[in-house]
Design goal:
- With 533 residues, this protein is mostly helical.
- 63% of the residues lie in helices and 0% in strands.
- The chain contains 22 helices and no strands.
- Helix 11 (240-253) packs parallel to helix 15.
- The model is unreliable at 118-138, 378-393, 499-507 and 516-533 (pLDDT under 50).
Length: 533
Amino acid sequence: MDVSAVLRRLAKKRPCYYHLHILYFVGLSLLGALLLRSFGTREGSTHSHLSFLDCFYTAVSAMCLSGLSSIQIEDIPAPGQVLVMVLMVLGGQVLSLVVPLLVKKHRYCKIARMALRPRVKSKSLFESLYRTLCLRSNDDLWLESLAFRPNLPESFKVVFLEHQAICHLADIVVWYLLAVHLLGFVVAWISIQCSSNAKSVLESKTINPGFFALFATISAFNNVGFVLTNENLVAFNTNSVLLLDLGLVILLGNTLFPVALRGILWLVHRYTTGTKKEVYTLLLEHPRKYYLHLFPKTATLWLLLAVTGSNALGGLIFCALDWNNEALDGLRPGEKLVNGLFQAFSTRSGGMNSLNLVELSQAMLFFYCVMMYIKPYPVLLRGEQSREDDTTLLTQSRRNLANDNTFLFLLVVFISISLNSQMEKDPRNFNLFAILFEVASAYGCVGLTLGYSCNLRLQPGHCKDTTLSFSGTWNAPGKMFIIAVMFIGRHRDLPHHIDSTTDMEKISRLSRRPSFIALTQPPVVVPESTPPV
């Protein structure tokens, strides 16, 4: 076998979006772990240093939106906390929602430059660069003008309308992200300032209320689950406004994002007049062709029904099973209801907890475990095609569950083997259900955990309660296996190609036709003389 030939073949092979996505996450996680370890621990912390494995675990958890921690967040110094917040943004919805749209827009603009490029050979390098810059600055302008010409052939018009659809959709998504973050942060900050209990908690931990509100908002929107306090939001379970605000941000950042996006497009389409109405009609009629998180009307209604039904069911089961639970002692009926709804919102993907989960009933914990395993969307994001079988919920569910079940089963077996000695010595903390709950949380990128309790130990001896995730107390092999679960969960249903439905080669051939070139030649003549340097 010729090794050099195989290497040359691999080098020529173009990497797909899926592989690039994995390399991006692994690379940033390693870099984040090195930086986090270099920052050390906060002054007065119980730990003198942070191990690389714990730093890598935390960085992967932030990038993969898992929210599990093997380091107490209060032990991380301020620069490290800012780094964790940056990792949440880089691995979260902000980039994953906007970057595919910008890549598509770039591809359409590249075709425009092929059509608009003057056929006159440049006399010098400076003149060539000047021509290129002139054309790049006019890409969007020319494509927009060409899209609405009355005598444009239908085959050409579709290309230009698709470019305009991508541009308008990118603008809407960016403004949506900014608006949700800004409103969520403002409401969270005001709710903290108006609550003496919340202010006293943050003051006792020397945490800035503004930074706490910003960190919590970004974590909620990206569905990570990290909060700047070790006990998460348990100390704020009487602040109903804060919980409802973060709960709504959790929904708008994940499960309700496609619903909100289609609703915005529908409103703009309804109140837009003129030729731009065609662009929004194209987006509403062929959503899967343009955006990974934009669904057809029927699938969007199913998603809204699934989110509403699952959250309502979670709230009802919580009220039925744990209304009089000791975890809710001291809360008024309204506050109990808000906490129950917040846990229902957070269980699907948010990962924040306002109650000590280990004190809840076993039936409630089993329901949360199932809800974490179920995918947030009832439709797959594997491809962007508007195919009939991709809108059949039963078909998609079977395909989704069959893909990762084998890997998860093997990882649970390996985790159980690596923790066998701890399961024998401490069976009430290290039991199979606790392991399954942790794996479901990591795979669902949720972040809920049962933690570790000294009160459950059977053998006497020195023990100190910790607010770490349950997997944060595991040995090194167990942590590596749970890191693998995080990666699998974050990359499930990711498409192999960022633009699977737009035949860019076909459009590129179309742009080289003489009729296309004649139609799209700009009236502005680029100066023949070389501009002054």
